Amino acid sequence: MTALAALAGSLIGGLTTLASTWLTQRYQATRERTANEIAKREALYGEFITEATRVGIDAIERKIDSMAEMTRLLALSNRIRLASSDEVLAAADAVIEQIGELYMGANKTPREIYEEARRRGNPTPDPLKGFSDACRRELQNW
Fold first, then answer.
1. CB pairs under 8 A, 24+ apart, for 8-11?
2. CB 76 within 8 A of CB 51
3. Tell me: the pLDDT tens digits for 25-44?
4. Whole-angstrom Cα distance, residue 25 to residue 52?
5. pLDDT tens digit string along 36-71?
6. Residue 47: exposure state from Cβ atoms within 10 A (0-12, 13-18, ≥19)
């Protein structure tokens, strides 16, 4: 009876250690996947912001010559469409729409841009604020 109890105790101890190790490894793997996904999204959103800023400045200074100017921005938008929430996608689409309106509108000076932003109640013109806020909320919820 004593030998059977010792064997059962060893078996239970071994299974407990095995289960604990398995759960720890699973938790660490999940955390690592989450951290990698957040890093990928941060990089994607950063690329979109950089490209939207470049194209947006170009749109303010001149009329569009061809859609080639928007190619990289549209590609980034479609990459966002693959991985992001509807809120982030809607914000990215709004940025692209604003840039399109800038290209179609009259060229503006920096002074005109700031004055227009102040008339709307914004201290500075920042068409990417809604997008960056949506990205921040999404990344915080991960």
1. none
2. yes
3. 888 988 999 999 999 999 99
4. 40
5. 999 999 999 999 999 999 998 888 877 777 778 899
6. middle
